[in-house]
Amino acid sequence: MNINEIKKIVESFGATLYDTEIVQAGEDAHIFRVSIQKDGGVDLDVCADINAVLSPYLDTNPPLKGKYFLEVGSPGIERHLRTPEHFAKSVGETVKMSLKDSTKLRGKLVSVNNDIFEIEGTDGIVKVSFGDISKARTYFEWK
Predict the structure, then answer these.
(1) Which strand (E) or helix (H) includes residue 106?
(2) Residues 6+ apart with CB under 8 A from 71
(3) How would DSSP label each residue in 39-99?
(4) Which residues of 22-38 are buried (b: 16+ CB within 10 A; e: fewer)?
(5) CATH class of 84-138
(6) Which pLDDT value is given to residue 2?
(7) Cβ(109)–Cβ(92) under 8 Å?
(8) Which helix (H) or strand (E) holds 8?
(9) CB neighbours of 134 closer than 8 A, spacing ≥ 6?
(10) Per-residue model confidence (pLDDT) at position 70
(11) Tens of each residue's pLDDT in the chain, 143 residues
(12) CATH no. for 3-73
């Protein structure tokens, strides 16, 4: 599997590739999840269209060995932040993260400078290095 080919397929529909992940789906199967973003939002039609082109490509270039299911969709309002690019696109949003030293942070992502992120929380602004993060995601306050 070539991630650049997946990216080209997604982009041919006016969308951008946000992320891919492999998720366990039972004892002997997995889900190959392709998360996409598109100006104006991701709808069912664009997901189905991308799936229809991506599926034959993955039949000849499987993302993993064994049985898997393809899932194309939006990363959602609360999405994983795995790369510095994900953080850069999320400036101004509320984020939740766990650091490798077990510290938990939640606040507004106010800036991204290379691999240093500034989060404004209840204790003021905290600087965090990308290498210190174990898990992070955007966070939506449901009211």
Answers:
(1) strand 104-113
(2) 31, 32, 33, 34
(3) TT---HHHHHHHHHHHHHHHHHS-SSSSEEEEEEE---SS-B--SHHHHHTTTTSEEEEEE
(4) eeeeeeeebebbbbbbb
(5) mainly beta
(6) 85
(7) yes
(8) helix 3-11
(9) 97, 98, 99, 100
(10) 96
(11) 689 999 999 999 999 999 999 999 888 889 999 999 999 999 999 999 999 999 999 999 999 988 899 999 999 889 999 999 999 989 999 999 999 999 999 999 999 998 899 999 888 999 999 999 999 999 988 87
(12) 3.30.300.70
Token pair recorded at residue 118: 């500034």
For tokens 């965090």, the residue is 128
How do the domains of the chain map onto residue ranges? 3-73, 84-138
Encoded amino acid at 52, one letter: A
